[in-house]
Amino acid sequence: MPIEINWQLLMPELVIALTLIIVLVFDLFDAISKTILGWMTIVGAGIALWVSIQMHQADRVGTQFNEMFKVDSFSLFFNIIFLVSTILVVLISMSYLDRGDRKQGPYYLLILLATLGMMLMAAGNELIIVFLGLELMSLSLYVLAGYFRESPASSEAGMKYLLLGAFASAFFLYGIALIYGGAGTTSVPKIAQAITADDKSPLLLAGMFLLVVGFGFKVAIVPFHQWAPDVYEGAPTTIAAFISAGPKAAGFAAFLRIFMEALPNLQVEWSGVLILLAMLTMTVGNVIAIAQTNIKRMLAYSSIAHAGYVLIGLAAANDDGISSAMFYLLIYCVMNIGAFGAVILAKTEDGESLMISDYAGLGTRKPLLAIFMSVMLLSLAGFPPTAGFFGKFYIFKSAVGAGHIWLVIIGAINTAISAFYYLRVVVTMYMREPEEELEFSPYASTLVVGLILAVVGILLIGILPSLMLTPAQNSVF
Amino acid sequence: MLLSIVIFLPLLGVIAIALLRGLGATAVKGIALGIGLITFIISLGLYIEFNADTATFQLGGTPIEWISSLGISYHIGIDGISLWLVLLTTFLTPVCILAAWDSVEKGLSGFMMSLLALETGMLGVFCSLDLFLFFVFWESMLIPMYFLIGIWGGERRIYATIKFVLYTMAGSALMLVGILALYFQNGNSFDLTTLSGPFEHSDLLFLAFFIAFAIKVPLFPFHTWLPDAHVEAPTVGSVILAGVLLKMGTYGIIRFCLPLFPDAAEKFTPLIVTLAVIGIIYGALVAMVQPDLKKLVAYSSVSHLGFVVLGLFSQSSAGLQGSMLQMINHGLSTGALFLLVGMIYERRHSRMIVDFGGLSKRMPIFAVIFMIVTLSSIGLPGLNGFVGEYMILLGSFVQGAFSKVYVVFATAGVILAAVYMLWMFQRVMFGTLDKTNENLPDLNAREIVVMLPLLLFIVWIGVYPKPFLSKMEKSVELVVTKVQTTEPAMGRLEKQKPRDPKLALQGTQYIQHEKREKEAEQ
Predict the structure, then answer these.
(1) Are residues B173 and A409, on separate chains, in Cβ contact within 8 Å?
(2) Measured between beta carbons, which residues in chain A are less than 8 angstroms from residue B135?
(3) CB-CB: which of B140, B150, B184 is closest to A427?
(4) Which of A243-252, A317-326, B434-443 has the lowest mean pLDDT?
(5) What confidence tens digit (pLDDT) does each residue in B475-503 have?
(6) A204 to chain B nearest CA, in Å?
(7) CB atoms within 10 A of CB A467
(8) Would you list which residues of chain A are within 8 Å, Cβ to Cβ, of chain B?
(9) A240, A299, A244: which is closest to A421 by C-alpha?
(10) At residue A96, does pLDDT exceed 80?
């Protein structure tokens, strides 16, 4: 039986794949400037973004390949998150990579491959497809984390990420196998039909917990978070930004899809686990972040804590919970990439300034940089009028609606704790005098453009949340 | 429309300064002062337009849908309670801008921008009728204050500013949960005007709101951030902090805690009033032994705000009106005290009482103004402090819903205030003049201009408080009715005659008891 393919539904993925090939081919010519490859990536991702938005607005949805691939407003919304992240990451990468001794071609190629993997994960309606997407994404990220071969830290980050990531993938795959054993299928809708409320085989439960472990590793939930600070610290800063944003969103996309669509009948079992993990993740992430002196490690722990906030939305498990998790992931990606971008911007002649104490006096010496950084950090901390405030508010609202008052109280207290370390950076920038005069490099224009986009986005969504809220609410499966 | 202009005009000033900061320091100061004055003049329009015959919210215009899918709208308006706090804010801001004219050495434009942004935040808090909007303003006003203390503050400014932010955030975290819980009980709406109890878990909801406000007031034992913040903040920061920010706490109590959860408020009254009285006496005693002028004024704030809380929970019209008036009075006199301390600090670079003595010989104008403000803070008849404190004590004693013993102890606070303020005044102004102080110049014209409007209102409220009280009367009475009983008609009857607090309490309980029995029968 010939398979009928609706090419229109696959447009975003096809555009990315095509861009990938073009970048691959153009990389062969030594004559052209490699920065062009970055622009090609941006244009490709931009077109895919535009197509995704159009499809989302027109509600052009459907399934492909025997229901293995499901294009719905949910996956399209996540496409928007991934592509926005990719564009921002490429924008902050271009000047960062532009040093004679670094190969740029494979970098953009791998970023595109990872993006494709994420899109597969969001649209996977079949556990195997989700796994394929996960591996496509993860393998690209392992290489990217170790991209600066001359730096021992980067190599170590790549190796560490590979080893722990491989374990996580194994857990995930084992979970799929057990679920197949319990339900007799790996298709998301069929699993849901196979599990009835009173028939919960131990195989299914074990499989479900293994999936939690696998996802837990990928999105860095406590207690599966150990890799994140080391990898973020060692990996190139742009890649730390990338790993903390898109792939985390992709992990949550598959997490949401599988748990809400395939395992809704096990909700009694998993919601308790998720509540516990959410509390642990927020608290551990925020408390350890307080002790950090290196800004990349601080942002790593902060991104762990933010995974905890998103988990609140998952644990709420109602429509508001899902859309609040999606909304939060979108703005989280923008503000986190923005924060890492500001770190890259604070570059001195002998490398990046990674110690928080290096930022002393930036408020007067580098006002633009200090403003970028402050907006991002205040948004991460959840102060109005930034988007971070509304994101957290909406997540808390969904959880109160689901009756998880205690979870919200813990989350709200965590917000207050997190304000301490975010504000500490702001304090350092505006209120402390520098101990030594650091010579900062001049700003790179692409980086500044990326950061301006992020700042404008964060403030715009903060003041008019409906712009993204309505699409998010319309994207619940 | 007028109200929106008042709220957002200062924000416009922030943008104007950001764009025009290149024009130099004088231009920045000019813009800031101009915006501050225009905002004040427009806000006087609110006073004129305000209709005092009704307790409803007015002048806000129709609500504008903001985040429609969550039932959030831009809904503002003022009643007789918020009107005064709005005016206090718009009045104090230009005074502060003028007071900071020469004292800001670095980052002048940032300073003025923070001050104006703060004004928008504070005005928004007082005018919001949507819980979400209220919370947005409540949180966003933290950031400019954080910068004001942290950048332009004293030596331990960073510790003080972080403590201030964290205390407030810890409180508001709980309030956020309370707001969300109310939202679901209010038919998925954040609209304050449609909120009406009784609510489920009203005790917990009451506490969620009350703790956030108690930290802000600050009520003993949540007060420890206040002396740090006051001492480290620049003069103007202290003025705004004492003058307006603390009032956000008492405003929250009168706007949310009392009318929304009357039963819970009644239940917790003994505890809260005890804390308020402890605050009154403790604040006064600690103020007495402070060697630092600014710290003394800061602790006197703890004492004064204790009076306000006492009046708020008295369930009497006079007590609540007294509290409202005392909020304004405290803003005026404590604000003036901080300004005076700031002026002497700029001259001598010390705030230690031991460093001064005999100043009245060198600085007669300063001494006269200081005397008037000191007497106002003590509550001398004929000045503003007397009217407020008298009404609070009278209301609490005659009609109060709690034991008279509290009031007796609170009255001791009035005497203690006289002790610490007059003793301080004596040590600073009289006695032998130290050599180092011989060349201190008296107040200049600008400083006198800063102080005059404050003095005007200090005397005005003291001599003729009626225009102030008459505008707030209806709104305060509405709160009192809501608190006294859940049955409004009975509340109005009750209010006619002064009542023995014990009898009244039994009366209210009796009505509720009967009501419950009737319901049970049905």
Answers:
(1) yes
(2) 384, 393
(3) B150
(4) B434-443
(5) 888 888 888 764 443 333 444 444 444 44
(6) 35
(7) 12
(8) 363-364, 378, 383-385, 389-390, 393-394, 396-397, 400-401, 405, 408-409, 412-413, 415-416, 419-420, 423-424, 427, 430-432, 465-466, 469-470, 473
(9) A299
(10) yes
Chain B residue with CA closest to A401: the answer is B184
- Tell me how close the Cα of B403 comes to any Cα of chain A, in angstroms: 35
Written as one letter, the residue type at B486 is: T
Non-local (6+) Cβ contacts of B80 within 8 A are: B50, B52, B55, B471, B472, B473, B474, B475, B476
Would the CB atoms of A466 and B69 count as touching at under 8 Å?
Answer: yes
Nearest CA in chain A to B67: A466
> At A181, phi and psi to the nearest 5?
-60, -35
Name the DSSP letter for residue B58. B
Q: Number of residue pairs across A and B with CB atoms under 8 Å?
A: 85
Give the whole-angstrom CA distance, residue B238 versus residue B440.
23
pLDDT score of B498? 44
What confidence score (pLDDT) does residue B488 get? 40
Alpha helices in B128-261 (DSSP H): 131-140, 142-152, 157-185, 202-216, 225-232, 235-240, 246-252, 258-260
Query: Which two structure tokens, joined as six digits, stand for A364?
Result: 């007067």
Choose from A376, A404, A422, A466 for mutation: most chain B CBs within 10 A. Answer: A466
Question: Is residue A132's pLDDT more than 70?
Answer: yes
What pLDDT, on a 0 to 100 scale, did the predictor assign at position A79?
Answer: 94
User: A231 near A161, Cβ under 8 Å?
Assistant: yes
Mutation target vs A (from B15, B21, B69; most A CBs, 10 A cutoff):
B69
Tokens matching residue A68: 């293995």
Question: For residues A285 and A267, what is the distance between their CA atoms, to the nearest angstrom?
Answer: 26
| C-alpha–C-alpha distance, residues B71 and B174, integer Å | 21
A390 CB neighbours in chain B (<8 A) are 67
pLDDT tens by residue, A333-377: 999 999 999 998 888 776 777 888 888 888 888 888 899 999 999
The pair of structure tokens assigned to A82 is: 């991934």
Q: Which residues contact A102 (CB under 8 A, 6 or more apart)?
A: A148
Q: Which residue of A390, A423, A473 is the best one to mutate when testing the B interface, meaning the one whose CB has the most B CBs within 10 A?
A: A423
Using a CB-CB cut-off of 8 Å, the residues of chain A touching B142 are 383
Q: If DSSP states are collapsed to H, E and C, what string results for A417-449?
A: HHHHHHHHHHHHHHHCCCCCCCCECCCCHHHHH
User: For B65, which residue in chain A has the nearest alpha carbon?
Assistant: A466
Give the CA angle between residues B208, B210, B215 to the nearest 5°. 105
Check whether the bond before B453 is cis (ω within 30° of 0): no
Q: Which of B84, B88, B97, B82 is nearest to B36 (CA)?
A: B97
Residue B66 C-alpha, separation from nearest chain A C-alpha, in angstroms: 7
Cβ–Cβ below 8 Å for A400 and B181:
yes
Q: What integer best gives the mean pLDDT of chain A?
A: 89
Structure tokens at A326: 């999606």
| CB atoms A469 and B70 under 8 Å | yes
- What is the DSSP code (8-state) at residue B354? G
Q: What's the CA gap between A188 and A172, in Å, rounded?
A: 15
Position A301 pLDDT exceeds 90 = yes
What's the token pair of residue A96? 């960062």
Euclidean distance between CA atoms A316 and A320, whole angstroms:
8
Mean pLDDT of B328-337: 92
A431 chain-B contacts, CB cut-off 8 A: 150-151, 157-158, 161
Residue B129 has pLDDT above 50, yes or no: yes
Q: What is the rounded distance in angstroms from the CA atom of residue B425 to the CA atom of residue B353? A: 9
What ipTM was assigned to the predicted interfaces of this complex? 0.89
Instruction: Report whether pLDDT(B508) > 50.
Output: no
